[in-house]
Amino acid sequence: MRLVVLGGGESGVGTAILGKKKGYDVFVSDFGKIKETYKEVLSINGIQWEDEQHTEDLILNADVVMKSPGIPDKAPIIKKLVEKGISVISEIEFAIQFTNALTIGITGSNGKTTTTLLTYHLLKQGGLNVGLAGNIGKSFAWQVAEDKFDVYVLELSSFQLDGIINYKPHIAIITNLSPDHLDRYNYDYNQYIAAKFRITMNQDENDFLIVDGDDIEIQKWLQNNKIEANVIPFSLQDKNKEGGYVQENNIYNNVNNELFTMPINELALEGKHNVKNAMAATAVAQLMKIRKQTIRESLSNFQGAEHRLEKVLKIQDVQYINDSKATNVNSVFYALDSMTTPTVWIVGGVDKGNDYDELMPLVREKVKSIICLGVDNQKLMNTFQNVVDTIVETTSMVEAVKIAQKMAEKGDAVLLSPACASFDLFENYEDRGRQFKNAVRNL
């Protein structure tokens, strides 16, 4: 059997290693450049590879092709494979056939990384032999090849779900839906929503789907489509008979006729959206029979995701917060919503067709000044110049942080929450977040 892996990044190399171990004839092809560390791994494992090209003769003879999530379906090589009727699948679909582990799949437009890390933390603290993979950390396929976990918590993007056929998580979570990556879905929001709901397409009556009960699009989809899984909602507005809800500053989670309660102020994570993330992760822990006391302790001692509302330092009574992972408007909405002090907001980068209007009420209420950090800041300037007292432009992180320090007074916060991609001035959002933290530490 010939396995061709398109894309020589983390998921591609992991798939190649698993394929080789399972006796496939493996070839890795990347249209871009493969990192040196990955080239070494491939060579050590005797796996053939090429980069900066796709040699069709070596690809179109595949029995199965694993496509990395970053490659769009409209790429010429993918179109040719589909025309030839060759199966093109995602890493998750390839790897799942080689493990008996139970999986928990987590998707959504925002909050999926935090919910994934929190779920993993709850299960690990609860004593389960659990792995963490998907869109995060070490590749799932690589772990299936080398580790022996009983349970995996997988963060799944819509692109990874596009490439599944038989994959079925025992427990699935859809944190919420908001327009994102529409360039990959012909600018059709419904196609994007359908991609997210692929997470439940193979689930049966023994499986569970945990969803945001307040999300209009999720509720609409569930009303119009039949699913087999047991639905467990979580909500800030409704008191659910089954699932999670909030009452008098407490979380209540009723799952499997077991009621879990905890005061919101004891949660390690702040903000309404994190109350939802906590309810979703708690529902998983309850289904996996983790003790209530362990869940409570884990929710109160959890360290959040790096670059996601990460408190960096307090200098002269000003709190600096790194939310570099906020690459769309919806994420920034959550960030601003969780701010409790006047805020100097650092924003900007490569705009993905953002509509900033929904942020207006929060910006008026919470933001005292704005620092635009990008190559082209015109749209931000036009949108917000009459809303805040001061708005400045800069193209350097060090300068942005220095200006922020001058603008901020005792008791304020400085928030990096860009709403945009980072590729104009930085390698990626992690690089942007690290530069912010370094600049803050050097103040």
UniProtKB/TrEMBL annotation:
Belongs to the MurCDEF family. GO terms for biological process: cell division; cell wall organization; peptidoglycan biosynthetic process; regulation of cell shape. Coiled coil: none annotated. ATP binds at G108, S109, N110, G111, K112, T113, T114. It catalyses: UDP-N-acetyl-alpha-D-muramoyl-L-alanine + D-glutamate + ATP = UDP-N-acetyl-alpha-D-muramoyl-L-alanyl-D-glutamate + ADP + phosphate + H(+). It holds the Pfam family MurD_N. Its main location: cytoplasm. This is UDP-N-acetylmuramoylalanine--D-glutamate ligase.
